[in-house]
Design goal:
This protein is of the alpha/beta class and 284 residues long. Helices cover 24% and strands 33% of the residues. The protein is flat and about 65 Å long.
């Protein structure tokens, strides 16, 4: 059984001295994603990526990764997903294989992180904004979608009540989807920001819920280029982040007409792009 955290013993130091105590830390293990594709009598298995992740929701992570990287177009491309047993591996659940339907050719040229990805997002991301527009089927801009500003205020507190592993470890990122009534619909956690979002979008993909153009994405940390890229792939129109956005994330959001908000803390936040979707109350 996969576990998302583990108990360790640490030395706690403070002004009052030091003492030994038990603590919980978030698990981080590698996951190798393999892809099987081709005709019935000529199947090919190719290693696509090795990512550092928190164990759990691996099927969603693999599906979300393949979709947000443009390697598969929809859930119908996927025949099945399974963990592989590797004789020399300590944990047989650290290799996963995604089999595509016969005749489906994956767009491996679209992936720019084919070999190793870190959970800290240090080496992942697309080479250009133009590449995303080429592979995404959900890039239409809907400026009719509008939400009141105070709807966003409550999101971080709602998310915190759903972060089970974070409560015990304090070491995980989270991505959450809210509907237009402010109700949370999906939450996924991981040590890596991009993994959490891949799991989230993968869950929506496997449930045939794409595009997510009627959902609001909440990021528990900063909004980076690769996270906005993944949101754009899934058709998300509004992104709110607890932390700051990067300059390239703002550029990408602006390019795709995505409303990007940052520093969502308490009853305040900044809007960086497409502000017309946020209804701001007027005080006379």
């Amino acid at each position: 059984m996969q576990t998302a955290n583990k108990q360790i013993f640490v030395t706690s130091i403070s002004d009052h001295g030091s003492h030994e105590k038990s603590d919980w830390v978030a698990m981080e293990e590698p996951l190798e994603i393999r892809l099987e594709y081709g005709s019935f009598d000529n199947r090919v298995v190719q290693n696509v990526a090795v990512t550092m992740r928190t164990p759990g929701n691996d099927f969603e992570l693999a599906a979300g990764f393949l979709f947000t990287e443009g390697i598969v177009k929809n859930a119908a491309d996927i025949k099945n997903i399974e963990h592989c047993f590797i004789a020399c591996a300590e944990n047989k659940t650290n290799v996963i294989q995604v089999s595509l339907q016969e005749g489906i050719i994956p767009y491996l040229a679209n992936a720019s992180r084919n070999f190793y990805t870190t959970s800290s997002c240090g080496v992942c991301g697309k080479g250009s904004i133009a590449a995303i527009r080429t592979v995404s089927a959900f890039t239409s801009i809907d400026m009719e979608l509008k939400i009141p500003a105070d709807l966003l205020y409550q999101f971080p507190d709602i998310l915190s009540t759903h972060q089970e592993v974070f409560k015990s470890t304090g070491g995980l990122h989270a991505s959450a989807l809210f509907n237009l009534h402010g109700e949370i619909t999906f939450v996924r956690e991981d040590v890596g920001r991009h993994n959490a979002l891949d799991k989230l979008i993968g869950a929506a993909l496997l449930e045939q819920s794409l595009p997510l153009n009627q959902s609001i994405l909440l990021l528990s940390g900063r909004a980076s280029f690769e996270l906005v890229q993944k949101a754009a792939m899934a058709g998300i129109q509004i992104i709110a982040a607890v932390g700051a956005p990067s300059s390239l994330a703002i550029e990408l959001a602006d390019e795709f007409g995505i409303t990007l908000a940052g520093f969502l803390r308490g009853n305040r936040f900044n809007i960086y792009t497409a502000p017309q979707r946020i209804l701001i109350p007027t005080h006379e």
